[in-house]
Amino acid sequence: MSTTVCLALTGASGMPYGLRLLDCLLAAGCRVQLLYSQAAQVVARQEMELELSSRPAEARAALLAHLPAADPELLAVYGREEWFAPLASGSNPPDAMIVCPCSMGTLAAIAQGLATNLISRAADVALKEGRKLVLVPRETPLSAIHLENMLRLTRAGAVILPPSPGFYHHPQAVGDLVDFVVARILDQLAVPHTLIQRWGS
């Protein structure tokens, strides 16, 4: 049985991380439940020239066109207020959830348990059900509020994974830096990959 992963795209810069992660998860045979915020639509257009429609079915079609090798059967896309989606309930949570990129607004909402949309509700479910929750916050510098929210989430069981690429693997292109971060996310999920050479190997 394949792993089911919820991937949420939010309105921080860093959409290349999120889309490369989606590509790798689908390539690894993971079932992906995709969520995206309204601000993520703006970022996808700005950084990737990708139009994510407000209609989930149209957004799904655009993503599959962007990732032509992906198996369509593995990707489900849900709207922000789609409260009957499986991941809205602890009775049917995914195996893991990643928010990548994660805006400070989304991070704060999750830290406070607001659950006012499907993204923050799904994260709330992941925490309460003891599932892996990985947040990839893309902001700099960080205020005391940001840091306190991250500490609160870490204490609640979330993994805070800033997209901070290393350089010891001698990256030759931007894609190498993206792959470094995506590799660290996949490691958190125990999803096999060959994106980077492992240290000492």
Report on this model:
With 201 residues, this protein is α/β, with parallel strands linked by helices. The chain has helices at residues 15-27, 38-48, 56-66, 104-111, 118-128, 144-156, 174-188, and strands at residues 4-9, 31-36, 75-77, 96-102, 132-137, 159-160. The protein has a 6-stranded parallel sheet, sandwiched between helices. Helix 6 links the parallel strand 5 (132-137) and strand 6 (159-160). The protein is globular. The two termini are 31 Å apart. The mean pLDDT is 96.
Question: What does this entry show, briefly?
Answer:
By secondary structure, the protein is α/β, with parallel strands linked by helices. It is 41% helix and 15% strand. Helix 1 (15-27) crosses helix 7 (174-188) and helix 4 (104-111) crosses helix 6 (144-156).
What distinguishing features does this structure have?
single chain; 201 residues; 6-stranded parallel sheet; 15% strand; alpha/beta; 6 strands; 41% helix
Q: Which structural class fits the helix and strand makeup? A: alpha/beta
Helix share, percent: 40-55%
Task: Spell the H/E element sequence.
Answer: EHEHHEEHHEHEH
Radius of gyration: 16 Å
Percent strand equals 5-15%
Q: How far from one another are the termini?
A: 31 Å
Please outline the major beta sheet: 6 strands, parallel
Mass-distribution shape: globular
Number of DSSP strands? 6
Which parts are unreliable, with pLDDT below 50 for 5 consecutive residues or more? none
- Strand order within the widest beta sheet: 3-2-1-4-5-6
